[in-house]
């Protein structure tokens, strides 16, 4: 699959995903790991951080699904 056949939206969403994961690693994961000294504490911090990431992704999915489902009503607000 040549690069020219990939839609622009795919590149935008992929870029947003990479930026989001880098921000998560730098702003949430790295401080959580650095705050603890023992290996099991660091592992627990990584696990809890991944649970936070999963919760954020789930909230984003639910909000997105709500917007898609109710788009007819929402779009009428802007007219």
How does this structure look, described?
With 79 residues, the protein is mainly alpha-helical. It has one domain. The chain is built from three helices and no strands. The longest helix is centred in the C-terminal third of the chain and has 31 residues, at 39-69. The mean pLDDT is 90.
Throw out a few tags for this protein.
flat, 81% helix, 79 residues, single chain, mainly alpha, 3 helices, 0% strand
Q: What secondary-structure arrangement, pairings included, does this model have?
A:
Layout: H1 8-34, H2 39-69, H3 71-76
Helix pairs in contact: 1-2
Give a short synopsis of this structure.
The chain has 79 residues and is mainly alpha-helical.
Fraction of residues in helix: over 70%
Order of helices and strands: HHH
Question: What oligomeric state best describes the polypeptide chains here?
Answer: single chain
Helix/strand/pairing category: mainly alpha
Largest sheet: none
Taken as a percent bin, the fraction of beta residues is under 5%
Radius of gyration: 18 Å
Number of domains: 1
Distance between the termini: 40 Å
């Amino acid at each position: 699959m040549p690069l020219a056949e990939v839609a622009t939206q795919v590149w935008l969403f992929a870029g947003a995903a990479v930026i989001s994961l880098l921000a998560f690693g730098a702003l949430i994961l790295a401080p959580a790991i650095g705050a603890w000294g023992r290996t099991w504490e660091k592992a627990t911090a990584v696990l809890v951080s991944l649970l936070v990431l999963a919760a954020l992704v789930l909230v984003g999915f639910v909000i997105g699904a709500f917007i898609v489902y109710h788009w007819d009503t929402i779009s009428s607000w802007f007219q």
